[in-house]
Amino acid sequence: MDRRLELSNIEVLQTLGTGSFGRVRLCRVRSTGDYAALKILKKSDILKMKQVDHVISEFSILRTIRHPFLVNLIGFTQDDRYLYLALEFVAGGELFSYLRTIGKLDNNHARLYAAQITTMFEYMHAQNIIYRDLKPENLLIGHDGYLKLTDFGFAKVVEGRTYTLCGTPEYLAPEILLNKGHGKPVDWWTLGIIIYEMLAGIDPFTDEEPMAIYQKILKGKVKFPRNFDKNAKSLVKHLLVADLSKRYGNLKNGVNDIKNHRWFSGLDWLRLLAKGIDMPYRPTVRSPDDTSNFSRYPDSPNLSPIVRASDDPFLDW
After folding, report:
1. b/e sequence 53-84, b meaning 16+ C-beta within 10 Å
2. Does residue 12 sit in helix, strand or coil?
3. pTM, two decimal places
4. Which of 83, 188, 201, 219 could lock 41 by a disulfide, CB 3.0 to 4.6 Å apart?
């Protein structure tokens, strides 16, 4: 269960990543000796950028989700200037960094990662949560080689459609760009993008200019490298479909059209969920506080250890 943390019980260590209104730092919970990733959000920036709803949504979703491939919320607190979310520390670093190092994945490796992402979305969609921000930067690799999805800033509980424009340019589904209202199918579109990226080493609609990316997405023409696995190509084509009545994941069989696709034939989904399949890559993790798989960041000034006396960090705004 997540719980209220005391800042005096947290030793804040080096930076693991930075975002638009905060950063993530490694921390140690003094009373237990456990390490966590502390997401530090600056209240003034959240208000200035009109992100209050997104932050409240992220917090409430993190409190409810429990899945082997989703990052766990350990605790939370706040002081006068910051909100703090303590999350499970996943020491293997980002899939983004790993892909940048090796270029692209072999077919089986991409297939195992894609299967894990499929189960993440299956679980979230069953709770009417859409994620909306799948990209290699938001997939962390555990010491066991399995993925953990992080950063639920754009995730939202939606039963029908929503109209907020959010996401990363290369990954935006056509219905988001056209502002038609969107729902769960946007996540299946992003699965198609990431399968292509893992196997080709680049995303399918890549360009220097966001407007050119958007035009390519709306045209919907995907060129595949010659050595792209034919079964993976078939699944990607079924996912990168602008017509929602034809996009896999959104048909009457739901996620089963994806799980039963021939690219995944022979995969034991229950064994995968139980982490019973050896992953092709296990990152080197030398200790519970090993941050060598993350980029180095210049340090920021120490945070003020003032703890507000509220029971819930989101109720007294």
Report:
1. ebbebbbebbeebebbbbbbbbbbbbbeebbb
2. strand
3. 0.92
4. 83
Architecture of domain 95-273: Orthogonal Bundle (1.10)
Neighbours of 194 (CB within 10 A): 23
**What would the pLDDT profile of 243-297 be if each residue is shown by its tens digit?**
999 999 999 999 999 999 999 999 999 999 999 999 999 999 999 999 999 998 8
Positions at the binding site for ATP: 39
187-223 pLDDT, tens digit per residue, is 999 999 999 999 999 999 999 999 999 999 999 999 9
Neighbouring-strand partners of residue 182 = 162
Say whether 257 is catalytic. no
Positive or negative: CA dihedral 124, 129, 133, 139: negative
Residue of 133, 187, 203, 290 marked active site: 133
**Three-point CA angle 68, 147, 150, nearest 5°:** 80
Q: Which helix (DSSP H) or strand (DSSP E) does residue 10 occupy?
A: strand 10-19
Say if residues 296 and 18 touch (Cβ distance below 8 Å): no
Instruction: Write down the CATH superfamily of domain 3-88.
Output: Phosphorylase Kinase; domain 1 (3.30.200.20)
Sorted by where each begins, the domain ranges of the chain are 3-88, 95-273
